[in-house]
Amino acid sequence: MNDLSGTVDSFRFRVLVVEDEWPARNYLVELLEGSHLAEVVGAVASVGEARQALQPAPAGLEVDVVFVDIALEGDDETGLDLVRASARNPRRPMFVLATAFKEHAIEAFELGVDDYLLKPFTEERVEQCLRRLAARRRLVVPQSPLRIVARRGRSLVFLEQNEVWAFEAADRLTSVHTAHGTFDLDLSLSAIEASFGRALTRVHRNWLVNAAHIKELERDGGETRVFVGVGIGLERRGVCVPVARERAQAVREMLLASATGLRRI
Predict the structure, then answer these.
(1) CATH code, domain carrying 113
(2) What Cα–Cα distance (Å) separates residue 258 from each residue in 197, 253, 254?
(3) pLDDT digits 0-9 by tens, 168-196
(4) If I label 51, which of 45, 58, 72, 140 is the partner at 20 to 30 A Cα–Cα?
């Protein structure tokens, strides 16, 4: 197998493999890893497991490409369903259908699949697929970060991502909390999460927070909260956000993973 690592500035795709037949899954993982162009960060057997792996951090994995079979035994959903569900997400990973079925190619490319890898897998086919993905990655023009447009009465307010402290859903309304004030949005939390992906952290079903602005993690009995804003103590300005019990440990680990100074037990 050729070593192609130098052709893409030592970049390695972070790959998720979705394949229900374990011999095919293991062989594809071996071929991907052996190409030196890919690092397999997950290998699962169903669409449900793939959805979980593709959740925004900290719950999910950092994934650049998903290699997914179409027909998954014992699964009500197909690989095409997984692609279709991700179609509206501008930050979705690339998708490669790795399948024995040629007849789905037209539908797959209409859904935005990036490549089509037919079984039986071979070293040459996997390398060619990764070359095509690498070439497409180099041709992508970086887009300017999305701005948030919110409402203040009859006015529209335009915000940069780094100005946002948190998004809140309450009483069928969505609000954005910032240093400039709190404003109304027309989007649901799910749509916001799909647009900004890993830039935001879901800490509660009604709250998305910008982890870069988390200043305090508070525990009071069985309740956990984060303070998002500026300043610490009496001088702080921001919003106190509840953390769901099932997410508290993941949020704590996420915050400690990018910090130092505390003895971890």
Answers:
(1) 3.40.50.2300
(2) 18, 9, 7
(3) 998 888 999 999 999 999 888 888 887 77
(4) 140
Residues 121 and 185 in one domain: no
| Judgement on whether residues 42 and 129 belong to the same structural domain of the protein | yes
Residue 242 bridge partners (DSSP):
225
Identify the domain containing residue 228 by its residue range.
148-257
Q: Is there a single domain that holds both residue 78 and residue 176?
A: no
pLDDT, tens digit, 9 for 90 and up, residues 140-161: 444 556 788 999 988 999 999 8
Q: How many domains does the chain have?
A: 2
Q: Alpha helix locations (H) across the chain?
A: 22-34, 47-53, 79-85, 105-110, 123-139, 189-196, 248-257
Q: What pLDDT score does 8 carry?
A: 41
Tracing tokens 């508290």 back to the chain, one arrives at 248
Q: Is residue 15 part of a domain?
A: yes
Q: Are 41 and 12 in contact (CB under 8 A)?
A: no
- Give me the count of residues in the chain: 265
115-118: strand order across its sheet: 38-44, 13-18, 65-68, 94-99, 115-118
At 102 the three-state DSSP class reads: helix
CA distance 205 to 97: 32
Q: Are residues 131 and 172 in the same domain?
A: no
Which of 87-101, 116-130, 135-149 comes out lowest in average pLDDT?
A: 135-149
